[in-house]
Amino acid sequence: MGRPLVPLSIRVEDQAQLMAWTRRPKTAQGLAMHSRVVLGAGKGLSNTAIAQQLGLTL
Questions:
Q1: 18 near 41, Cβ under 8 Å?
Q2: Does residue 1 lie within any of the structural domains?
Q3: For labeling, which of 14, 45, 53, 58 is most exposed (least CB within 10 Å)?
Q4: How far does the chain reach from its first CA to its final CA, in angstroms?
């Protein structure tokens, strides 16, 4: 097993901006994907869970 997860705290304003980037049609896809990864980490998901959910590889 890996290292224990360090809680990621995302401010409400930052979370709102990340969500906006994931929903906006003109957002670059790389930025949208990074935003989804950060939001997943903010929910306490493991890197593996985030990767599986988003169809990424580690």
A1: no
A2: no
A3: 58
A4: 15
Q: Which two tokens stand for residue 17?
A: 């901006």
Give the closest residue to 3 by CA, choosing from 41, 47, 55, 54: 47
Task: Tell me the residue range of the domain where 39 lies.
Answer: 12-54
Structure tokens at 23: 């929903």
pLDDT (tens, 9 = 90+) of the chain, 58 residues, equals 677 777 799 999 999 999 999 999 999 999 999 999 999 999 999 999 999 999 999 8
State how far the Cα of 43 lies from the Cα of 40, in Å rounded to an integer. Answer: 5
List, in order, residues 6 or more apart from 29 with CB less than 8 Å away: none
